[in-house]
Design goal:
Blueprint lengths: L25 E7 L14 H8 L6 E2 L4 E2 L4 E6 L7 H17 L2 E7 L4 H12 L4 E5 L19 H7 L3 E7 L4 H8 L4 E5 H6 L1 H10 L4 E6 L21 H10 L5 E7 L9 H16 L1
Parallel strand pairs: 1-4, 1-5, 5-10, 6-7, 6-9, 7-8, 9-10
Antiparallel strand pairs: 2-3
Helix pairs in contact: 1-9, 2-3, 3-4, 7-8, 8-9
């Protein structure tokens, strides 16, 4: 395992890690404490620590979904990142996820900046012939490059698209003209902007129900309104509410979800709103899947 031996916390309710007896078809959490391409609010490298700590505020019974958290999952600690080198870090994440997949463990990644998803998605596209990425974000992240860099928090979904995935982008409310033109030029990117979610959640749920491929769920915390999750890399007003994110997760509960990430929690303060909300997303996911 290409993981840091220092494990600051394990996510609440995670199983004891015994590599000789890992349960097949389980989930495995890894942290990616990296934020070297951050262009506005830095600090997401501390996300894995504060999100794990926040997870201890929840009880095992999920009252919203009337379900007990009985999914088997492990917390393997943090990946050894290369500060300042996004491509090298993505390669390490990719290799780590391959090792998880060899154990028949599906990855849950806590960021760190969104660039970490590049390595995860690349590894998954090697395992699955076809993959749909359900991407919750304020931004499209479809730039070909950002300030001359192809590996960046702003280029994640462009790299993913190059790997051959279908994209469903939810909560979008900020993008460049070039990104909008790129979306128009493709056939396999479906968009639900923030107002679509606010007014027509039923259409979002219906569309997700029609997806027949394996699904990877990628959640940038700036998809939330800044009133709910203020400490993110690039906050943008007009975001989604917790109940809307819960509805998306519920819509995926009976689909083949082969991994997820929750990224861009940028705070060093324990118990901060963004960290607690990020932990709740992972908790909800594990309560339903």
């Amino acid at each position: 395992m290409l993981l840091n031996t220092y494990e600051p916390w394990k996510f609440a309710f995670s199983a004891e890690t015994d590599f000789e007896n890992i349960k097949k078809d389980s989930y495995g959490i890894i942290g990616v404490p990296f934020d070297s391409t951050t262009s506005y609010h830095s600090g997401s490298r501390l996300g894995p620590v504060v999100v794990r700590e926040a997870s201890y505020g929840f009880e095992k019974y999920n009252t919203n979904f009337k379900s007990d958290l009985d999914t088997t999952f492990y917390d393997f600690g943090d990946v050894n990142v290369v500060p300042g080198n996004c491509q090298a870090t993505c390669n390490i994440v990719e290799d780590t996820v391959r090792e998880l997949l060899d154990l028949n463990v599906k990855p849950i990644t806590i960021g760190g900046e969104h660039s970490a998803s590049i390595g995860v998605i690349k590894a998954l596209t090697e395992k699955y012939d076809k993959l749909t990425v359900v991407h919750l974000d304020a931004h499209r992240d479809l730039a070909f490059d950002f300030i001359g860099e192809k590996y960046s928090h702003a280029t994640v979904m462009r790299r993913a698209h190059e790997f051959g995935v279908d994209l469903v982008q939810i909560g979008i409310r900020s993008s460049s003209l070039e990104e909008e033109e790129f979306v128009k030029s493709t056939y396999n990117i479906r968009t639900f902007k923030n107002k679509d979610v606010h007014k027509h959640m039923d259409a979002v749920e219906y569309y997700l129900a029609t997806v027949e491929t394996p699904i990877y769920l990628s959640i940038d915390m700036d998809v939330f309104d800044p009133a709910i999750a203020p400490c993110v890399g690039n906050p943008s007003p007009g975001g989604l509410f917790t109940s809307e994110i819960e509805d998306v997760i519920k819509a995926l509960a009976f689909k083949e979800v082969v991994g997820m990430d929750v990224v861009e929690t940028a705070t060093d303060r324990l118990g901060e709103n963004t960290a607690v909300t990020a932990a709740k997303i992972i908790y909800d996911f594990l309560s339903l899947i």
